[in-house]
Design goal:
Elements: H1 10-15, H2 26-32, H3 37-44, H4 49-65, H5 77-86, H6 104-111, H7 113-118, H8 125-128
Helix pairs in contact: 3-4, 4-6
Domain DUF4158: 7-110
Protein name: DUF4158 domain-containing protein
InterPro entries: DUF4158
């Protein structure tokens, strides 16, 4: 007889560290994926719409799911569109260029380690208020 206790179902474990299959609604987008002035200042340091949008998507992703995704563009289109509007990027599809240079995403991840983990809206804060 096993004495281990399981707190998560298999489906919950499989979904950990990734976006939910159901795209976020408008309220969730505004609450979780809002870029404040400090965020926009960080994003503005990068050249090219694709680089700014890619960096911003990594920023909101690590806050939402608690980690970087293996494919940083594996983000719901609603999130891409919402973040692009905040950055005044007219064509969100430009983000496809973000992966053209393989090291860009890794450089962005390493450039601001404090930003990823010190933000007051931690990955779970949206769920608990």
């Amino acid at each position: 007889m096993s004495s281990t206790v399981s707190f998560l179902s298999q489906a919950e474990m499989d979904g950990f560290g990734r976006y939910a299959e159901t795209p976020p609604n408008r309220e969730a987008l505004e609450r979780v994926f809002f870029l404040d002035d400090a965020d926009r200042e960080l994003v503005a340091e990068y050249l090219g719409a694709h680089s700014r949008l890619g960096f911003a998507l990594q920023l909101v992703t690590v806050r939402q799911v608690g980690r970087f995704l293996p494919d940083p563009l594996d983000v719901p289109s609603a999130v891409v569109d919402y973040v692009a509007v905040q950055l005044q990027i007219e064509d969100p599809s430009c983000v496809k260029r973000y992966l053209e240079r393989r090291n860009t995403r890794y450089e962005h991840q390493a450039a601001r380690p404090v930003v990823w983990w010190s933000w007051p809206r931690s990955p779970l804060s949206w769920a608990f208020g």
